[in-house]
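Deliverable D5.2: sample structural annotation.
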Amino acid sequence: MSSRRTYQVVFVAGAVVALLALGWWWLIFSKLVENDYLTVGQAVTCIAGTSDLCALAQALCTNDHLYGIRWYAPEAFWAAAAILIAGVLLSARPSRA
């Protein structure tokens, strides 16, 4: 596989993981915002990290979430970021002749 193709695959994989992570986050935190447990601004801080506020809000989740999913792991966001950065770094690498 050429290096150009490799970075494209890595970058696209990172984008897919990022979309999945954001979808997972929205699945959880949209309900919390809708029920006025958090503001959107407070919920956004939970995308990339955990805090007492994020943990408390997730503890308030009920079973009315899709498939009963009641928690979110910010590690998904960081995994996506790492894969995207790897794709960018691979694209910046000089190609061999």
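Annotation notes: Helices lie at 3-34, 40-44, 52-59, 75-92. The chain is about 65% helix and 0% strand.
The annotation will be released with the project's public dataset once the embargo ends.
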